[in-house]
Amino acid sequence: MESTFKPANQHGLILYDFGGSPCARRVRITLLEKRLDWDTQIIDLSRLEQRNPEYLKLNPNGFVPTLAHGDRIIYESNVITEYLDDVFPEIRLYPTDSWELAQVKMWQSAEAAMAKDYRTLMYQRLMGPMVRLTRTLEEALTAARHSTSDPADLAWEERVWRLAVLTPEDECQYQDRLLAWLDRLEQQLAGSDYLVGNRFTQAEISVFPRVMMYAFIQLPIGAERFPNVKRWTQRLRTRPSLATTLSQQDRGLLRLSRTPVLPWLRRALQTPEATHSLPQRLGLFIARHAAQRVMRRSGEPRQPAPGTRAIRQPRIGQIPPADMPRTCISHASANQACEPITLYDDRDSPHGRRIRILLLEKGQRWHGVEVDMSRMAHKAPEYLAINPNGELPAMREGDRVLYDSQLIAEYLDTRCAGAGIVQLYPGDAFLAAQVRMWLALEAGTHKEFRPLFYLYVVRPRLQAAGVTADRLDRVIPPGVHASHVSWLRDALKGTPRFDTSEALARATILNKVDHLNATLAGSDYLAGDSFTMADAAWFTRIDLFPQLRISLERMRHAHVIRWMEQLRRRPSVKQSMPRTEATSGKSSATL
Question: What's the CA gap between 402 and 396, in Å, rounded?
Fold first, then answer.
């Protein structure tokens, strides 16, 4: 489906959007802040339209938003917003100072880490009841089948409908973690009106839309515990770009969240229908009609029936030249030598290994500190004081602490630059966006990869050390949250939680590898004609496949297999193997 752009849309921008998505909303806010016009294609998440094969051709991650800029396709909200800052730099939302830029990206990383807990609790507390009220199980599955036949998608839809995403104990643990995340935000805003540099930046645009949605899952932001966050949200609500992007669906949910309806509704739906009293039946009847009104408010009036709406395809518009440069970081420290680097890492972490590869590519020395993720040391208070997201790796350069492997990589690529030094992020804006999209696609495998990693990498490590599920408490550092201990205990028992099943997790990962294979059919590298961070990231993930019992097929994945063999001969890849002497030497300390 192609159509002309509206007259004001001179740049040929199409946003594939859904009114209730905070990720899509941050792109709408960015477009408004930059005074750009665009056309919209609604992708109805409640009907799994994001899994429609036509949409997956645009965004293989199967999420919203996606942006078409003429015939350029960019997906993942933070990739889109940074691309917009590069190609429309007149109004800057990302700082040009490298340390302030790193801080903005750390807040984006923090929001992404929080979002994993938020989404799960949202499906349990909000989406499940709304879908259950408005559709029978068969109606929900039928609507989903119009967009996807993937067994993993359909199994997830059934879990959501049955309100079986989380147990009551899990719900409490997720709620605790989400409130603890707000405590961090509260601390950051003490004495400051904004998150970075005491001015409005992309950090606000990235964090606010989901924080505002805490009310949807019965986590109101009270002024008693969160006075700074409350003040911050009230100020931002009045900013025109944020006020005008609040969807009708979100407005309805906000009104609903101020009533006791949602908690009551969940309790009523979790009891057998035959036991409902007359007041409960009447209440459900009223709630059903209210839910139907809210679910219809997805941003586009009079939605066509599922399966009848085509996915609008991009068209060539007025786009910048192919060699449009990225906005340069203009400050002296980008040209100064890196200070001594400490890398907090685990020998088996694919995210840690890709940073080791980058440092080796640049000829940069570092000091390694082993953080034993098999004993949940990355979730212990000592490490959380370094990286509050509780993920590996983290890096210290002088008095600066950075976390999230993609952020660390981009920061080091800028800081450790100069004549003859390899750059792993291209200078071209669209090529850089392609690298970041590959990283987003790779990060999108986390949900399926994590239980496999704990079952087939972490569990054997613990078993080799003589640790059993019964003795686990003896090796876990003090202060690790009970939910993480429970996760590790399940892994030791051989029963980690998969969203669907172990077989479907492998199948989902391999479907994304198919996308790599198609790209590598005509190229030696994933983005452009040289080795980039996209290659390093996907290599470190796929190199673990044999341990995870994921098999690449010689016919199906011939180009990926060739690419992997080519990269294994690269010196930085060889030297980045776990426990190598390499540039860094063995990790000389343990956290």
Answer: 6
